[in-house]
Amino acid sequence: MPTQEEKIFAKNFDINKLPDVPPGLTPPPKLRRTRAVSKNDAPDHTQGNIYSGAYVAGVDDSTVKLENFYESFKVNVISCTETDMEFDMIGIDASLANAFRRILIAELPSMAIEKVLIANNTSVIIDEVLAHRMGLIPIAVDPRLFEYLSENNQPNEKNTIVFKLHVKCPKGVSRLNVLTNELKWLPHGSEFLKESGGSTSKPKTYTSFNQSQDSFPEFADNPITPTHPDILIAKLSPGQEIELEAHAVKGIGKTHAKWSPVGTAWYRMLPEVVLLEEVEDELAERLVNVCPQNVFDIEDMGKGRKRATVAQPRKCTLCRECERDDDLAHRVDLRSVKDHFIFKIESTGSLPPDVLFTEAVKILEAKCETVLAEFS
């Protein structure tokens, strides 16, 4: 049986207060909760804290308290352009980060060509393949300005965008590249006539526009065009011709990938590179040279001595090249911070990436409100 003194010593024991323990190291229990450790065979400590048995298993519940989430959650924007955005999401579980990724890819709407009416196509590309290529052309227009086209509705100025393509390769030209800048927006709707039931009936087109789209203030000085004017649609030889109409409607990526407003949306955990002991002189140079991402650098200590330092840990891809060297394996520890995600969004051009992320937050909020309403 342990004595009273031994019980008191065990209760107050702290490994970090021992004189031979380097200061600043993450305590092992906290390391398991907050870091995934990269090893040669497989990563370790990959499980998260937020799951149904977290309290029963004795896991520290500080990560699932709402007030702690308010204090720890942060979003730091690293870079943002018209098409690309990189930001850090800190203090969040992987399940929520993945929810944002899935919403961005599959549940945010955009406008894409759904119906292609081909009047003439003498190119080598068959009609079905040509229509498929047309559908994948990104369109630079805000989908929030349009409504969904249901089966019971007629195509009109509020749910359909019409483009026209009529290109012919003249004789004497070796070959003509048909690019997306040849697509002409028809703000008045379709120009192709349906078959008339009789000579006295008024000819009908494939859309029912009551108002021209260029009369809307959003499009008066901003005509609708493809995002990129130089996407190759087809190549025509002399005498070949393409004449068609393309009707774009609103949809989501869950229905078809052409409606996904992002080229990709992905994340990775923030890498953490720790030198467990000093790496000096020849070993330091070897460590710097073995890393393909230039994570490490050389620090001059004077008197001909040099040591390695972790200069750019964010660039680490956990390739483990530094750990494959037997002399360096026990000196370098590669980790990933479980609640710190480097998130990247690449927009196709319908909306800026920061607006896409804001819309994703709104969709996730609406999902949460739906769940709460079911329980109330």
From TrEMBL:
GO BP term, example: DNA-templated transcription
GO CC, alphabetical: RNA polymerase I complex; RNA polymerase III complex
SUPFAM superfamilies linked: Insert subdomain of RNA polymerase alpha subunit, RBP11-like subunits of RNA polymerase
Gene Ontology MF: a single term: DNA-directed RNA polymerase activity
SMART domains per the UniProt record, alphabetical: RPOLD
Residue span, DNA-directed RNA polymerase RpoA/D/Rpb3-type domain: 84-374
Chain intervals for the UniProt region annotation (Disordered): 21-45
Protein keywords: DNA-directed RNA polymerase, Transcription
Pfam family, one: RNA_pol_A_bac
InterPro entries (alphabetical): DNA-dir_RNA_pol_insert, DNA-dir_RNA_pol_RpoA/D/Rpb3, RBP11-like, RNAP_Rpo3/Rpb3/RPAC1, RNAPI/III_AC40, RNApol_insert_sf, Rpo3/RPB3_RNA_Pol_subunit
Family named by the database record: Belongs to the archaeal Rpo3/eukaryotic RPB3 RNA polymerase subunit family.
PANTHER family (alphabetical): DNA-DIRECTED RNA POLYMERASE, DNA-DIRECTED RNA POLYMERASE FAMILY PROTEIN
Protein name: DNA-directed RNA polymerase RpoA/D/Rpb3-type domain-containing protein
Taxonomic classification: Eukaryota, Viridiplantae, Streptophyta, Embryophyta, Tracheophyta
